[in-house]
């Protein structure tokens, strides 16, 4: 049974200009068991399963009916293993729609997800990741890809990020990508995971265009929000 929720996922659209992961590759089916799709007739944005009851995201939009979908691979092909559920969301109290600072949201599932061989949890970070670490971003985009895609990108230094993003970065953001362009997360991947060394380090947030030269993708730095995440899930 599919349950729908009216989510007021706040703020404006991201600054992405394309609907795909650029220069990525298709993931093997069921190889990202923590990947979540927030779906409204198409994949609108992504999410990350933290527990049976909680999804982490950073999706920003107007009022829309969304399904929370687990165990998706081909977004257009229904499968018996899929789980669809409703939710309520809790955005970070310091979220700023102008700067996208604290662009991070917790979504509580109802009923809870069933954890099995197809659905499992992402590992929340145990340390703040170092620059130049290669990380994986996954998602479908809004309309371009039917199957789950991945791209590998390196974390960049704070100075590189500040210069590349016209000093719009805050201390709660990290950026990743290739300065020559060509590989990037894009529109429709907001809220998706940036996983480094097997641990969740970032949430796809925003960027200038998609895979452009000297325009890396920007991610909410999960390292700064571990206490908020844990406290909210405990009290929520």
Automatic annotation (TrEMBL):
Keywords: Disulfide bond, Hydrolase, Protease, Secreted, Serine protease, Signal
Enzyme Commission code(s) on record: 3.4.21.4
Catalysis: reaction(s): Preferential cleavage: Arg-|-Xaa, Lys-|-Xaa
Enzyme class: hydrolase
Location in the cell: Secreted
Keyword Protease: yes
Protein name: trypsin
Organism: Oncorhynchus tshawytscha (Chinook salmon)
């Amino acid at each position: 049974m599919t349950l729908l929720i009216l989510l007021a996922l706040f703020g404006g659209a991201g600054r992405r200009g394309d609907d795909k992961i650029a220069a990525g590759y298709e993931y093997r089916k069921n190889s990202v068991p923590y990947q979540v799709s927030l779906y409204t007739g198409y994949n609108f944005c992504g999410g990350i399963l933290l527990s049976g009851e909680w999804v982490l995201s950073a999706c920003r939009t107007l009022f829309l009916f969304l399904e929370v979908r687990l165990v998706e691979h081909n977004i257009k092909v229904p499968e018996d293993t899929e789980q669809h559920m409703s939710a309520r969301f809790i955005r970070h109290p310091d979220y700023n729609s102008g700067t996208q600072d604290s662009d991070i949201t917790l979504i509580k599932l109802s009923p809870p997800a069933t954890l099995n061989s197809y659905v499992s949890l992402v590992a929340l970070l145990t340390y703040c990741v170092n620059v130049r670490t290669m990380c994986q971003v996954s998602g479908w985009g809004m309309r371009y890809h039917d199957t789950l895609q991945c791209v590998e990108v390196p974390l960049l230094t704070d100075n590189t990020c500040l210069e590349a993003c016209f000093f719009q970065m805050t201390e709660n953001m990290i950026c990743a990508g290739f300065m020559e362009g060509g590989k990037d997360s894009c529109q429709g991947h907001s809220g998706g995971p940036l996983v480094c060394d097997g641990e969740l380090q970032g949430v796809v947030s925003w960027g200038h265009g998609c895979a452009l030269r000297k325009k890396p993708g920007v991610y909410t730095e999960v390292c700064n929000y571990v206490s908020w995440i844990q406290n909210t899930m405990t009290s929520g």
